[in-house]
Every structure is written in structure tokens, then in C-alpha cells.
Amino acid sequence: MKIRIITPAPPRSRKGNRVTALRWARILRALGHHVEIEQQYQGGWCDLLVALHARRSFASIRHFRCEHPQLPLIVALTGTDVYQDLRTSPLARQSLEMATRLIVLQPLAIAEIPERVRPKARVIYQSAEPIRRRAAPAKSTFDVCVLGHLRPVKDPFRTALAARLLPASSRLQVLQVGAALSQEMAERARTEAACNPRYRWLGELPRWRARHTLARSRLLVLTSKLEGGANVVSEALAAAVPVLSSRIPGSVGILGEEYPGYFPFGEARLLAALLHRAETDTGFYEELRAWCQRLAPLIDPARERQSWESLLRELSPREARPGQPQLRGAGPSCPLPGFPTSP
After folding, report:
1. pLDDT at position 334, please?
2. Do the strands 121-123 and 199-203 form a parallel or antiparallel pair, or are they unpaired?
3. Mean pLDDT on 32-60
4. Which of 90, 121, 234, 322 is deepest in the core (most CB within 10 A)?
5. CATH classification number, 2-127+301-320, choose in 3.40.1160.10, 3.40.50.2000, 3.40.50.170, 3.40.190.10
6. Which of these CATH numbers, 1.10.10.10, 3.40.50.10240, 3.40.50.1000, 3.40.50.2000, describes 142-298?
7. What is the pTM of this model?
């Protein structure tokens, strides 16, 4: 099959959507398909279109559905789709109607989808390759990693604020990896590093260096307000690094309802208490680590490949040919005249 993947993130970007698109392209090529990644669908033939982000890729989704009403269209829902845009954006909801299938990254996301289109949804957990060669964690410090670009939805400085509340005896060091996506964020990171001896901002790193920084850390801390199913959690599970996370559906859907490493979003004091406990209570730390080790099969690359194989089998070549009846659940062939065409 010829497959096009649409992602709003530009080439060479290290944003999550581009990372996901590149990983899916590798999987689909390994399955024998020809794959192209584009920021926007410009027209032309393909057997299948995969669009990341229901709202931001709406123009591409609409264009493809109008040009090829019988061909399969997969829309992959991001965290902002699931936990924000579906509630506020008619464009995002229209993308779901036009899709043949929907991809969500963890099962709790299905409950946020309008009931009429839930049968289209399939869960594909994001996989991560294990790190074969890794340095041992530092002995003089208890390093925790915050991995992700600095933007408000990530609440990126919550871990640094929590670190300030730790007792003087703590050896905790916060290693923050990620580009500042605004001048305000960059200035705040530099100011925090200058006045907080427990905090280091490493900036944007090549992926291999970011992964090795994570693998050398004692914990990954995820402080986001919302996530569709954070790839950094998959990376931590693959690296056998326990996770502390804000209690949001995107993390609960991966780590489980009873996981002991949650704190309320935005609560620096409760996060500080968890960090201190993980550093000083060996039994608690080992409980976190054992729990995360049991979840490793979820993010096995072979599992993600099998999920894609299963999804593509649903979209058989016979159904994909022009002139055949429209796939069940594919939605309208084109939005009604006058429907808005841009976010």
C-alpha cells in the first residue's frame, strides 16, 4: 500500500507528533508499505491517509475525504484533541465523523470520544526501544528527569518548585530536557537554574542524548495538565526508570488506576513529598520500579507493530479500491457546503 502520514510538526522537529509519525513510518515500511510523511495533504493518490491531530490536520482530512470518499482514512487523536479540542472545536469533531478509524494512545481516551464514533476507535500504545548501553546512575546525586518541551500545558517548572521544598539533606537534582517554545519559558528556565541549586536546564538534546539522560536518572517526572498517552512514559518504561506523574487520564490509562506514583496536577508540595519518599524509602522506590517493569510489555515495539498489522487487516485492499462501497463508519464523503475550513 501507499500510505501518507500527515503531521503538523515540521521536518527535523523533535515535537511528539513528529516523533510518533517517524516511528509509525518505520513500522509501516517494515510491514512492506510505501510511506510518505507530509505536513499537509496536497492532493493525489494514496491507498490510506493517516492524519495526526483531528483539529490541526482538519484541512488535510477534509481535502482527502472530498477527493477520495471511498478510501480509508485514519485519524490519530492527540492529547489536546481528546482532552480539549473535542469539547470546543467543531472541526475536531467533524474530523472524527470523516474518519474510517480512530487511533487513541491509551484506553481511557475512548470515553472522551462522542459515543456515535467510539466503534471506530482502536488503542495503539506508543512503543519504545530498550536502551542497550547505559551508564549507571550518579552516586552523589538522586537525579530525576523532566523530559519534554517547555510550554504551559506541561507545567514544566513544577518539579523545580517541588525540589526547592526538599530538606537540606536531600541529594535530589532535577535534569530538565527540552526546548523552550517561547522566550518567556527560556528566561524562566535560566532564572530558575541561576537561583535553584537543585535544577539544571539542559535544553533541547538529540534524541539519543535525551534517552541516555533519562536512562541514567532515578525517576521520570511528568507534570502535564493533559496528555493523550505520553511517549516519555513509554521511554521511561523501556529504560526501566520509574515514573511520578500528575494524576491525569493520559497517564492513568497507561500506568493503571492504583499506581502509587501519582500527585494532583499543580501540587508542588505533594510532588515534593513523593520525591522525598522515593529518595529515602527504598521499599517505596522498589514498588514503583517493580510496577513499571510489569508494564514493559505494553510498550514493546512488537506489540505496536502487531496493533498496526491488525488495524490494516481491517482495511482490506478490496475495500480500499476506488469504486467500491464506502467503508462502514467512514462518515460523510465531504463536509456540508459552508462548513468552516480552517481552525
Report:
1. 58
2. unpaired
3. 95
4. 234
5. 3.40.50.2000
6. 3.40.50.2000
7. 0.88
